[in-house]
Every structure is written in C-alpha cells, then in structure tokens.
Amino acid sequence: MPNPVIDVRVDQTWNNWHSSSGVGGTVARFFIPWNDWDDNSAAPAGKPFVPGLAGLKSIVRQAEAAGKRVRALGSGWSLNNVAFVPDYLIDTANLSALLIGFGPRFVSPSQQADSERFVFSQCGAQLKTINQELAKNGLALPTSGASNGQTIVGAMSTGTHGSANSVGAIQDFILGLHIVGEGGEDYWIERASQPAMSDAFVDWLGAQLIRDDDLFLSAVVGFGSFGVIHGVVFKAEPLYVLELFVQQLDYQRVLQAATTLDMRGLGLPDGDALPFHFEVVFNPYKRGAGQGGAFVRVLNKRPFVAPGPSVLPTDGASLHGRDLVSIAGVFSGMLPGPALGDFLQGQLLSSVTPTAPRSVPALPGVAFGDSQPTGGGTSVELGIPINRIADALNAIWAVTDVHPFGAPVALRYVKSSDALLAFSHFPPITCTIEMPGVDSAAARIAHQAIFAAFKAASIPHSFHWGQQAPEDPQTVVASFGRARVDRWLAARRMFLKSAAARHMFSNDLLTACGLST
Amino acid sequence: MSSTQFSIALSLLSALAPAALGGCYHYAVAAREPPPNSQMVAIDRMNPQTSTQWQFAWGLTDEPVWSPIACTNGEKDAAGNCLHGSIDPCHGKGIGFYEVNVPWYMLLTTGVTLGIVSGVRTTFYCATGSGSESGPHAISGPH
Description:
The complex is a heterodimer. Chain A has 13 helices and 20 strands. Chain A is α+β, with helices and mostly antiparallel strands. Chain A has two domains: 4-238 and 501-512, Uridine Diphospho-n-acetylenolpyruvylglucosamine Reductase, domain 3 (2-Layer Sandwich), CATH 3.30.465.10; 241-469, 3-Layer(aba) Sandwich (Vanillyl-alcohol Oxidase, Chain A, domain 3). Chain A is globular and about 70 Å long. Chain A starts with a strand and ends in a 5-residue tail after the last helix. Residues 313-321 of chain A have low confidence and may be disordered. Chain B has a three-stranded antiparallel beta sheet, with helices on one face. Chain B has one domain (17-126). Chain B is α+β, with helices and mostly antiparallel strands. Mean pLDDT of chain B is 76; it is low at 18-26. The chains are: A alpha+beta, B alpha+beta. Chains A and B meet through β2, β5, β6, α2 and α4 of A and β6 of B. β5 of chain A pairs parallel with β6 of chain B, so a sheet runs across the interface.
C-alpha cells in the first residue's frame, strides 16, 4: 500500500490572505496533502480523492498521537483566527477533486430524478473552479459568496453568503459532509429528516454513516470543530445567467428599499420585484442629497440560452467589481473625515461601478471576482432581523459621524439558515451588514462603539464567524440563543466523545467563545 | 554652462542613470491562460513561495534563468544538472500566479550602488485545479 504524498513544513509562518493584524503566527507543522501516492501509482478508478483522504487521516492520527490540535485551511480569507491553530495546520488547496453526476442508486430515492446534478467536491475546491467545471456540464452552484476564490468547505464552515434572498448561504445547499474525525475515522453525515445519499454511496465512499439532523446542522457551520471535512455533496442547479445592474443613487432614495425590501421607486430592470441578489453599499460620509452615496447592486437570474453571455469572462476588477474587503486603501485610516468620504467614494465608484441603464450578463462563475490581498484588511459583519435595519443604520451613523473610519457599509439579504450557528439565522431573511476596511485604531474604536450601540438599542444581532467579533461566551449566546448553542455543544460531544478529541479539533478562538468543551 | 547649472545637470543625470539603464533589468513570466482571465485560475494562496532574484552590473551579467523546480538537497553537478532528482513544488500543476515586487530596501540598494546591485522579490503560487470527472454510476466491488 503506497503512502499519500504530504509536504510538511516545520515552524512555518502563516498569515491569512489579507495579512490582517493579529491573525496567524508560527505553525509547528504545516501540512500540504496531495491527491498523489508516493510511488506515483494512480488513485483508484473513479476515486481521485483517495490519496488525499488517506493524507488527512494520517495527519489527524499524527495530531492525536502527539496531543496536538489540528485544523484545516481553506483560502485563508477569514479575517480573524477562526482557521488558525499554532500546532498542526492543513493546507487543503490541492484536494480539489470534483465528481459531477451520480447514478440514481447512489442518491436517496426521493432525489433519484436529479442524480445527475449531484456533485461530490473535495474540501479544497474553489468556487471559481467548481462553477467552471459545472458550466461544462450545464450546471451551476445555487449561490456563492460575493467573490469566487473561497474553497467550498471554508466558505461553508464559516457561513459565507452572498445576497441570495431566496436561496441562503453556502451551507444551505450542502446535503452531506464527509468528515475525518477522532482516530482518523471517516464519517458520512447528513440529515436524518432529509437523507440525500443512499447506503450504496456511503459504501462506495468507504465511510461510516451517521444520519442526524442536529449533528449535520452543527457541523455544517462548525468552523473545523468537528474534524477535518474532506468533502461535501450538493445538488447543482441547471446553468443560469446572472445579469448585473448597478446604479448610484442618493442615500434617501435607497433607504426605503434597503430597510424594507420594497423595491418601488428604484427603477430596477425587473420593476418592483425583489431581485435574486439585492445589495446596497452606502458611503457613510455621503448621505446628503446629490452626493450619490448609495450603490445598488442587483443580480437578476435568467435561464441560460446557448451560446450564453457574449461578455468575456471578467478579470473581477474591470467588470463586476472587487470584493469589498479589497477596496479600502492603506491610507483610508489616516484621512480626516471629509477627505475620507471622498476617498471612499472614489474607491466605491471603481469597485461597485455603475452599469445603469444597461445590465451586464455573466455566468455565475464569473459574476464575482477574486479577493485581492489588502495587506492588513479587516472587517466586521453583523446579521440582524430585517425589521431592525433602520435602527441598525441609525446606530451605525451615530458612530461613524463621531468616529469616522475607512469602511463602506454594505447590506445584503440572505434567506434564513437552519444551521445552528449560522449567523444568518434570523427568519425569514437575515440582513447582513458588513463594514470592510483596513485595520486601524480608528476602525477598532468604531467597531466597539457600533457593537455597544447595537446592544444599547437592543437590536438582535449575530457575528460572521470569519470576521472580527467579540470572542466570549456571552456574545455567542446572545447571538444565537442558549438553545441553539446547547444543541451545537451536545452534537459535538455526541460526535467527538472524548475530551481529547474535542481539544484536538479546537483552537483559541473556540475556547474563548466557550465552544471547545 | 555655469557651475551651478553643471551641478544641477550632473545631479539629474546621476538620478536618472539607474532609470536609463533600467532596460537591462529583466524578468519573464510564462502565462498559463490567455488574458483577461487570470483570476479564474485557482491557486494555493496559503502556500506562497518567495525568493529573491539578484542582478549585477546594471543587468549586464548573464541572463538569469530562474525555475521553481529545485534540485533535491540543492545538489547539482558542474553542468548544473540535479544529482539526486528534483522537487516540483507544484506537483506538475504549474504556477498559477506570479508576482514581482521591489521592496524598499532593494530599491535603496540599487540607489546606493548606482544600479550595480539590483534585486527583485518574486512570489509564486501553484495552480490547484484538477478538473472533474463523473461520479459513480454502477455498483462495483471495493477498491
């Protein structure tokens, strides 16, 4: 039996993609597993992932034997230490095998008509790659984040979302998880109430089967706390086209739509109907009449008709805009208030570039660009119920008027998630409010003031797991409710039976949040 | 020309000399994909591999040919061939993204040495995509 190829680096320095302050550090063992055997023999036919899976099992067993904690990295986009542990860290980027289309016998009876749309993705596959490969088969991801370079498991594990108000976040279309847990054993985990796969699939995978709603709903947004997720299964959608429409308006003209999802008066391509993706980006320092401080970004979903959009695939910066974390420059934290507003406006115009009156079509895989490293980017993102958006904006403006900092305020709208610790859990639609920028003293002061203002105004809110947030048990319980947190902890204890295993798949952030026991 | 004008002209010439000779500093990047689609190439962004490339004598020395593939243990014969095989950091997938920059201290070095010593820092990221294949369709024996 050959051994899996794993590159190992000792005492490697790791930073996240944005080199955020205080994120990362020295890692005792940095593992890079590959889907290769050390004797160059081929992986089993139809199972290109087997060497990589063997590599993950080997790493987990090594961690267990050495009493070390272990975590897997996605694309490293998280702006906090949720993915980091200084013991053993796994770079999953090369575990990117994709299997598209299953025979009916491999999926549950209720899903057999759609079995050719089922996809098994290894953990390290990036959304851009998945969408490119799916498009070749006339398929597409149901949604993505607001950029395309995340790995599917990294994005899912932290509850990453776009603004698909009728679909939800990444985790909401995942049907099952293949996890390497305690002892290097691997498990197939899916809902008991909605099983997606058949026993034949689990046999083919060679995993142990667990059908349990709470375990699935806990592990799917589990930020690496249930083991190393090797792969996921989801059902792709028939290929579609996203038509981008961006217009720049005054703050007051957009306020009603932003706070109530009533699209009247915006002049959108589909009239007053709520678009597939509706998003508003405000410049906090351009809220006056005639200042054009609101950017409405809409994506309307259309059926794909061959040959498809004539627009060339975008480079992400020139057509559909950079992701918001990438827009703030290093100087934004140093500018005085009025100059800051002008600077932000310029950045927004070049990154959320208006297209009105025309719409620009693109396939889902190119509708969003990649995230460019910012050299110190940071962000906070809160989820709130949609009936409190007006209060939330007032609380934010009260802070930004006194403590200006270099960040726009972006509102997206995401269908509520069932995942127990999904920050988009407020029904029926969660409004997510993101403030991305560059880390600075001014930003940190403003962030804390905003958190305090939300608390003072009794606005229910949760925090994105991949962004800056207070890290304490009280905040976690306040964000998700005691009942959800207890169910999550119980599911983890049921799956990881020993305290040693729970420690192995934990990190300092998890411990600080009271979730590692 | 007065002595003041001469001094100014000399200063300008000194300042512009490295830039004027800049045409000799060179590097090359082989593209994997046709433009403008560079962002669609998935890369291992968690494993940047950085090195420094030096050039001397205003870039007039031998053309530096740099390869990400290194000899095992760094051991080469006199002709530069690897003695004990080579290591491909990208395992055959190639480089997906390559960037070149000049940190401030290298710029300073170039300035202080009037261009005799010049360096750039290069960072590459391996491509990661591995395509796709069909999932299982028939029940078969265990592999």
